[in-house]
Amino acid sequence: MKDRLFIFDTTLRDGEQSPGASMTKEEKLRIARQLEKLGVDVIEAGFAAASPGDAGAIRAIAEAIQGSTICSLARANERDIHAAGGAIEPAKSGRIHTFIATSPIHMEKKLRMQPDQVLEAAVKSVKLALEYTDDVEFSAEDAVRSEMDFLVRVFDEVIKAGAKTINVPDTVGYSIPALWGERMKQLIERVPNSGKVIWSTHCHNDLGMAVANSLAAVMNGARQVECTINGLGERAGNASLEEIVMAVRTRRDVFNCDTRIDATQIVPSSKLVSTITGYPVQPNKAIVGANAFAHESGIHQDGVLKHRETYEIMRAEDVGWHANRLSLGKLSGRNAFKTKLAELGIVLASEEALNTAFARFKDLADKKREIFDEDLQALVSDEGYAAGHERFKLRSLKVCSETGEIPNAQLVFTDEGVEKQAGGTGSGPVDATFKALESVVNSGADLLLYSVNNITRGTDAQGEVTVRLALDGRVVNGQGADTDIVVASAKAYLHALNKLHSKRERAHPQV
Ligand code: KIV
Ligand code: ZN
Predict the structure, then answer these.
(1) Which residues of the chain have pLDDT under 50?
(2) Count of domains in the chain?
(3) Which terminus of the chain faces fewer neighbouring Cβ atoms within 10 Å, N or C?
(4) Ligand 1 atom closest to the CA of 14, numbered from 1
(5) Structural domain contains residue 511
(6) Is 509 domain-assigned?
(7) Of the candidates 345, 360, 384, which is a domain's last residue?
(8) Do 308 and 451 belong to one domain?
(9) Same domain for 435 and 308
């Protein structure tokens, strides 16, 4: 019997700390539903004390999710613990994850606290958190640069105080696998009562070793890995969930543990997170990159055709590639459409939103031979159907682009239901479209990112556009999808403007 390796997903917390990846409550809920389907053990849904919006999103996730534990992060102080406890209150299974830095540099320069004060705060906050839930996790921030004797002391005391999970973070991505494995081994050997808790690892990817370091910790006794979909996260990101899960599963001969992850949900989860955050997945990314299972050289193709395992150590379908063909067609009814959305974890705000999305689906089915799950995800993302009311909506767009001529765009859109017209020229059709919109809306926002990806294969595929806008310190992503990428661009721009204007949109947790 293999040990269970617990998967703690922090896409909605550490992942959200990636620049521009801040999400609305509805977007977080959609991702949380997908994470539940994927089978993650713990969803770190946010940092309740960061803002009322963050607390509200955690609470909404705690109300909606039954199959995973819902966790809120909290610094080791009373205010944060009370906020976290309140936010996870509706959860069937809720956890508070409290942390404080233990390295000399953090204690002295950032916290301006003596080691004894840090120890006291850690113990006090674990005890306070236990008043809300018996599932309390403690993290020693910057454990990688902490002194071993002090770490042992802190962990000993927080275990005595009642922490059930002890997390050892490489906050700055500084370690290397041999040292990180050794650190985990020593901690488990030296901390009294270490057998009573789950040991966890949380690695950042600054030197590209987050996954390798996490796996080294697992080989030395860690039984929880904190990770994110697509490796999203602060700076260079966190350990990527898909790589951890598939490494452990593919190398059963090496790892004496396994997860309860449904690997066929890995690719859909990756695509959803990429769509919502606007962070594209690089084509050569392990497991979830578009080329992860593509064989280009003749020798490789020949080998795979003769015997697949000559060059493949995993099967694409086992991680969710190709498992996403939609069984709905042009003639499918509204109920079948609604059922499929529910299967994908998409809950629309109203009947009106469902009708609009259904009309869009029919329209798309007319233009596109095959419709995939990703097409549906994009369809609900780009106009914010899931979120309900949107201020700006695109009605129509006409673009003229001809060799040697200046591109020109004419748009009709609604602003709170009132029809507006806009026209403009630019260096290309997309530039002309954005300039036309700005000439009427005058948002003053800065365009930080514009990117286009095809959602599925083929020239009839929908193009998915992400637009990142910044205004007064707030950064938002807008998405738009259409078989016409200029239309997709206009939708993405309007979606981002809607978020900038929406009171629902939360401030970035770091702001
Ligand atoms: O990187 C880190 O140390 C963290 C902690 C809050 C666990 O994210
Ligand atoms: Zn982190």
Answers:
(1) 504-505, 507-511
(2) 4
(3) N
(4) 8
(5) no
(6) no
(7) 384
(8) no
(9) no
Whether the CB-CB separation of 380 and 386 falls below 8 Å is answered with yes
Q: Does 202 carry a binding-site annotation?
A: yes
* CA 99 to ligand 2 center in whole angstroms: 11
Please tell me whether residues 65 and 46 are part of one structural domain: yes
Residue 496 sits in the same domain as residue 438: yes
Please report the pLDDT score of residue 245 as a whole number: 98
Residue 204 annotated in ligand binding:
yes
Give the residue carrying structure tokens 């998405």: 479
Report the pLDDT value the prediction gives residue 323, as an integer from 0 to 100. 54
Judge if 435 and 306 occupy the same domain: no
Same domain for 464 and 346: no
Q: Please indicate if the annotation marks 97 as binding a ligand.
A: no
Give DSSP secondary structure letters for 164-219.
Answer: SEEEEEETTS---HHHHHHHHHHHHHHSTTGGGSEEEEEEB-TTS-HHHHHHHHHH
Atom 1 (ligand 1): residue with closest C-alpha?
Answer: 171
CA distance 229 to 428: 34
In a domain, 282, yes or no: no
At residue 17, the pLDDT reads 87
State residue 509's pLDDT score. 47
Separation of alpha carbons 413 and 491, rounded Å: 10
Contacts of range 393-401, beta carbons closer than 8 Å, 24 or more positions apart: 393/494, 394/487, 394/490, 394/491, 394/494, 395/419, 397/433, 397/486, 397/487, 397/490, 399/429, 399/432, 399/433, 399/486, 401/428, 401/429
Structure-token pair, residue 72:
């809120």
Residue 506 lies in a domain: no
Residue-range definition of the domain harbouring residue 345: 334-384
What pLDDT, on the 0 to 100 scale, is given for residue 92? 98
Backbone angles phi, psi at 482, to 5 degrees: -170, 160
Helix (H) or strand (E) holding 297: none
